[in-house]
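so i finally got all the pieces together for this one. its two components total, 308 residues if u count the protein bits. some of the lines might not be protein, just check the labels. i wanna see the whole assembly predicted at once instead of chain by chain like last time, that was a mess tbh
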Amino acid sequence: MERVPGSFGTSVSFALRIFQLGFSSTSLISMCLDYDFNEVTTFCYLAVVMAYVILWSILHTLADTYSVLLKQLPQKPRVLSIVLAGDVVLSFLSLSGACGAASATEMLLSIDEPMCGDKRCIKYQVSALLAFLCWALFLDSAIFNLWSLYSLFH
Amino acid sequence: MERVPGSFGTSVSFALRIFQLGFSSTSLISMCLDYDFNEVTTFCYLAVVMAYVILWSILHTLADTYSVLLKQLPQKPRVLSIVLAGDVVLSFLSLSGACGAASATEMLLSIDEPMCGDKRCIKYQVSALLAFLCWALFLDSAIFNLWSLYSLFH
């Protein structure tokens, strides 16, 4: 059976996971560059979500590398369902984190401009933007895996 | 063919849409009770999203009422796909609006407590909570319609 490009174990999925890993780690680093980010709950939440995204992406990058380079991993409905569920949950978490951080930064800028000195708010904005891009990639992965799951039954 | 409970044109879907309509309109009213909400972009965004949710819910409540009481509407793949796409898009918009508003309110409370006088922030929090519940209901609708779309091909 031909595999859906972008589904678990393909080279497109590998590329997607590499981008996810890059975006999420840059987002976390950008947030952690400001030592006071843990004073605001929203920023802490985004950092925790990005840490989970990094773990998930590393796991999938390894699985995809193994599948592409060494031995093609089988696409079982149970495995695809778990990957799909993880992608959907993490996409919601990324979106909520990104929106929360973007909104909190906008509030900081409008109310307390001096607090945004030393390019603090730009770091938060970059972090939120990258989390938003992670959400878009998760959505792509979820759609490809759903399509693959559907095609398994046909 | 038996219909999936909760999918387009069933009584469970009607109940879901009624709750959506209730939550979204209460969220919009709670936001508009504060005259200054339009000073903050995030709150304006949530109000606009809730207005769209109200329109979508009214449309579906009417369609479901017609389908349940008068004449069962056919579940065509094209109709179900449009309903599913609308539900997914609005679920993302509701979640982003809810997270943004919740985060902005938290920021207001932590930085500028006096601005939250006259129970302003409680109104914002109620609005965000109801938008969050709308997201949960949209997710339910989307899952039921996806299931129904899947069962149409089997």
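Chain B has one domain: 11-152.
The radius of gyration of chain B is 17 Å.
anyway lmk what u think
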